[in-house]
Design a protein that fits this description.
Keywords: Hydrolase. With 455 residues, this protein is α+β, with helices and mostly antiparallel strands. It folds into 2 domains: 241 residues, Beta-lactamase (3-Layer(aba) Sandwich), CATH 3.40.710; 83 residues, no CATH class. It is built from 9 helices and 20 strands. The protein has an 8-stranded antiparallel β-sheet, with helices on both faces. Helix 1 runs antiparallel to helix 9 and helix 2 crosses helix 5.
């Protein structure tokens, strides 16, 4: 199998994979790691048709399908064909959730039921879009708070139909043309194409297998129909991390990774963006999706900050530990953490910006403004204090726009004196000065000045 890691690291990763497959009695399991756009380790345990699975063996990836549907919706948004605040009724009328927004459906906060009415949809042939939509009546709404996290497979069936109506073609045909082909994902399909794994249920008290069905989910297919391979999922992991080709702008994918709803309280460890599941593990902020369909489990997690991803695919209905991928990421981080690149001066730095750098004060609070090697300004609290931090990109007219944190999207303007020298920073009306409460600066300028206590 592919690897570029030290033998000791390979063994540690393989042992974790082997323990997972053996102790949980998984018919076949493949897992791997991607770093900086390259698969640095992948291996498998168990067999598919009498041989080890390879990176070209298809598995059903279940709800990872939702991430593809979300990308199709975001493409429509970026083209101006819809707005995430638009109500569903504008495009797909006739359901009880017609006034809920497209964004709420994407972020799993629409209050729509998790499963469609009728028989167990994952194990029975699916119906038409008309049948699905007509079943979404008042009984499909869940109790308030309607804006809280509530996972809905139905919602993505509806979003698949939304894509089809706007594009005038089936959602999977649109996906093939707009996503899979441009990214070279030739082994991601709506139905299995050999070589592929058979899905199994493993008896809880005996070492025997039950073949699971692989029905066509019909209108519910956008919730979990796709089959794929490790190699294709590695490409998709890179996409989620920002290597988007021409399919979406990286800023749009970054928007998809922003939490839209969380499912476990104020200090969240898991949540949902716009079609992407989110998780926090140690110092990592992960984005991707889990997947489960009869006979199959799969997960893709990407850490965009570290440009590292972990993937697993298995042909079992249940049993793979959710900690498998985070354990693999931890092992990589412990045994082969990154070696920093050598620092070297930037030959292209704009030295006229040096006059903006250094210490500034927001009232009595110190901040430091740094010039980064990529031409961005970085405003951070000074002296190890906590506070609001943001990076800013130049707008070409002397102003700067915040990229992240509290000041994301806000405008930074540089105030200058008669001699053209910077005197203060105006950050969306908040004034930063070179000394605490500079009496000559606007708001709160003209204060009485510092004095001893009691005077």
């Amino acid at each position: 199998m592919v690897t570029s890691l030290l033998p000791s690291t390979q063994r540690a990763l393989l042992r974790r994979l082997a323990v997972e497959q053996s102790e949980n009695r998984v018919p076949s399991l493949i897992a791997g790691l991607v770093r900086d756009g390259e698969t640095i380790w992948v291996d498998s345990r168990g067999q598919v048709d009498g041989a080890p699975a390879t990176t070209d063996t298809q598995y059903r990836v279940g709800s990872i399908t939702k991430t593809f549907v979300a990308v199709l919706v975001m493409r429509l948004r970026d083209e101006g064909l819809l707005d995430l605040a638009d109500p569903l009724d504008r495009y797909v009328p006739g359901t009880s959730i017609g006034q809920r927004s497209i964004g709420a459906l994407l972020s799993q906060s629409s209050g729509l039921t998790a499963e469609p009415a009728g028989e167990w949809w994952e194990r029975t042939p699916g119906g038409s879009a008309e049948e699905l939509l007509s079943s979404i009546d008042d009984s499909a709404l869940r109790p308030p708070p309607r804006h809280g996290f509530h996972y809905s497979n139905v919602g993505f069936g509806v979003l698949g139909e939304l894509v089809a109506r706007i594009r005038g073609a089936a959602w999977h045909e649109v996906m093939q043309r707009e996503v899979l082909d441009p990214l070279g994902m030739t082994r991601t399909t709506l139905s299995p194409v050999a070589p592929h794994a058979q899905g199994y249920g493993v008896h809880p008290w005996a070492d025997v297998l039950l073949p699971e069905p692989a029905e066509d989910a019909g209108a519910m297919a956008p919730a979990g129909q796709l089959w794929s391979t490790f190699d294709d999922m590695a490409r998709w992991a890179r996409f989620v991390g920002g290597d988007t080709g021409d399919v979406l702008h990286p800023d749009t994918v970054a928007e998809m990774r922003v939490p839209g709803s969380v499912d476990d309280g104020p200090q969240w460890r898991a949540g949902y963006g716009l079609g992407l599941q989110l998780a926090r593990h140690n110092n990592r902020r992960l984005a991707g999706h889990t997947g489960s369909m009869p006979g199959f489990l799969a997960t893709v997690w990407t850490d965009p900050e570290d440009a590292t991803s972990a993937i697993f695919m298995a042909n079992t209905t249940a049993g793979v530990n959710g900690a498998l991928l985070t354990d693999l990421l931890d092992t990589l981080g412990e045994l082969e953490s990154r070696i920093p690149k050598p620092w070297q001066p930037n030959p292209e730095v704009d030295t006229t910006l040096l006059e903006l750098t250094g210490e500034w004060y927001w009232g009595p609070s110190p901040y430091v403004l740094k010039l980064l090697s990529n031409g961005l300004l970085d405003l951070v609290p000074g002296h190890g204090r906590r506070g609001r931090a943001s990076r800013f990109k130049p707008n070409g007219d002397g102003t700067w726009t915040g990229l992240d944190g509290y000041y994301s999207g806000e405008i930074l303007r540089v105030g200058r004196g008669a001699d053209g020298k910077p005197t203060h920073l105006n950050l969306n009306t908040f004034i930063f000065t070179r000394t605490p409460y500079d009496t000559d600066a606007p708001v709160p300028g003209g204060v009485a000045g510092w004095r001893p206590a009691g005077s």
